[in-house]
Structures are given as C-alpha cells and as structure tokens.
C-alpha cells in the first residue's frame, strides 16, 4: 500500500491510499496540516488492507523500488485536496487551534489600530507582535510592571515624571 497526504497552494488538504485492491481518497479541512493528511492516508490504508498486510505497509510505503505506486498516491492526494467535500472531513483539534490563533491575531491587530487609547504604546510598537511579550519574559514581574507603566505614561516615579517635557 502507498499513502500520501497533500496540501495545495489554495489551502485544500487531502489524503489517499493506493493498494492492489484499489484506491481511496479523503478530503480534510483546510486548517488541517500535511502531517494530519499523511496520518489520514495511513488510516485509509489500514481500512482497506487485511491484518497480514500491515507489516508490508510500514516496511514498504516509502521504498525506492516502489516509486510508481507512491507517485500515484501523491497525485491522488493532491487531486482530492483540490475537491471540496466538507461532509467527509473530520475537524481536528490542531486545525481548530490554528484557526483560533489566526482569528485572535487578526482581531488583536484590528483593535490595536482602531483603539483610541494606548497612543504611547502605538508610538513604541506600531504593529502588535509577539516581540512585545518577549521583552517582558526575561525580567521579573515587578520590573515588567514598571516598564509597562513607563511605556504607557501611567507611572508616579518622580525621576521619570521630572524628565518628561
């Protein structure tokens, strides 16, 4: 058996298996990874072969002598990745996490740009990035608190206030 998983340039994800008994394909969600598609291909293979062929799948799925079947599995995985059949797709937790992170980052950027408060911070950091957090990871919490207060201009340190124009 030959298995493959593929993700197209437009984000489609698919898996396939080519066995002596036939072929099988599955369309995954766009948020899923190539790794998830590879695993789905293996699950398809296990569903289409008998127990005594499992050892052959593990030992020969990437064997150089059997490139023809492997290339065929790759072509089928790419073909099914470009098809849209969401009813067949199982939603993976990793895909949900990826999508939530993307949405949270997008919303953070939108709110950063449109919020009326925080002009001091926007002057220091025009765009929100994880670099903002990296500054605070290497210092103690008390120092981090003072740094935020200085960055926002909300601090009562006499020396700091006296230095302001």
From TrEMBL:
Protein name, per record: RNase H type-1 domain-containing protein
Listed SUPFAM superfamilies: Ribonuclease H-like
Cross-referenced InterPro entries: RNaseH-like_sf, RNaseH_sf
Molecular function GO terms recorded: nucleic acid binding
Record organism: Penicillium nalgiovense
